[in-house]
Amino acid sequence: MEIERKFLLKELPNDLEKYPVRHLEQGYLCTGPVVRIRKDNDKYELTYKAKGMMIREEYNLPLTKEAYEHLKEKIDGRLITKKRYMIPFEKYTIELDIFEGDLAPLTLAEVEFASEEEAKAFIAPDWFAEDVTFSRLYHNSFLSRI
């Protein structure tokens, strides 16, 4: 089960270079239901996500590099590339995505939670802007199609 909220940003935090960064590449084989392939640095996986906005089932399966490259040729829409910064905030980790290519300069922050109650009670830092958790426009599966 994945429970997360997603936000646009007012500004980027200072000193991004001091935080761990991951280089992501992902594409979608299907968007209803969501079936995604992802390269996360040197890790490859296939993900299935059920319907939902803030709360939804998610299953991740490992892929080999060869399987990922084979499936990458079959994606629908664009291949999304982004840098993901892992920023500690209170007891959470903010996953700050800076999109590259034709989705630049889009930036989004995601925070995962242990429960729905915790997600609803979360108070975002000042550098967050609009909460877009319930807008499909900011789901990566949607961004891959526009």
Describe this structure as you would to a colleague.
- This protein is mostly beta strands.
- The chain has one domain (2-143): Hypothetical Protein Pfu-838710-001.
- The mean pLDDT is 96.
- The chain contains three helices and ten strands.
Radius of gyration: 15 Å
Beta-strand percent range: over 45%
Number of domains: 1
Mean pLDDT value:
96
| Percent helix range | 10-25%
Relevant CATH superfamily: Hypothetical Protein Pfu-838710-001
DSSP, total strands: 10
Span from first to last CA?
27 Å
CATH top level is Mainly Beta
Principal-axes shape call: globular
Number of helices: 3
Can you tell me the CATH topology? Answer: Hypothetical Protein Pfu-838710-001
Structural class: mainly beta
List the uncertain runs: none
Q: Supply the CATH architecture.
A: Beta Barrel
Strand-and-helix sequence, N→C? EEEEEEHEEEHEH
